[in-house]
Design goal:
The protein is built from four helices and no strands. With 112 residues, it is mainly α. Helix 2 packs parallel to helix 4 and helix 3 runs antiparallel to helix 4. The longest helix is centred in the middle third of the chain and has 26 residues.
Length: 112
């Protein structure tokens, strides 16, 4: 990949690619039965992929993609989490942790 970084703030192509990658990895982790651990790994890997491949500011792109994925997941899963009695606090923790892992992954990907 071309690791020469540009000065542009964000690139929506990489944000949308990150969203698709993260959703795909989350679905694979659900199907394989590793659940939340796989979801967290998906956010970190998504950040690293964006960080490595994106010529823009990959940390911000990974963070925005993670925020969008976590927000959509929160809206969808909030009903399920509430039904199973887990609660909103756990769902918010998952979203915050996912954002953190994606940003760290983006930072690591930029440095590779």
């Amino acid at each position: 990949m071309d690791n020469e970084k540009s000065s542009s703030w964000i690139n929506f192509k990489w944000i949308s690619s990150g969203i698709l990658v993260c959703f795909a990895l989350s679905i694979l982790s659900y199907i394989s039965g590793i659940g939340i651990i796989g979801g967290f790994l998906g956010f970190g890997l998504m950040g690293m992929i964006i960080g490595y491949a994106s010529p823009g500011n990959a940390v911000k792109e990974a963070g925005i993609a993670a925020f969008i994925v976590a927000s959509i997941g929160f809206i969808i899963n909030n009903l399920l989490l509430s039904l199973f009695g887990v609660g909103v606090v756990i769902a918010m923790f998952y979203g915050i942790a996912a954002l953190f892992l994606a940003v760290i992954g983006g930072y690591i990907g930029e440095k590779i």
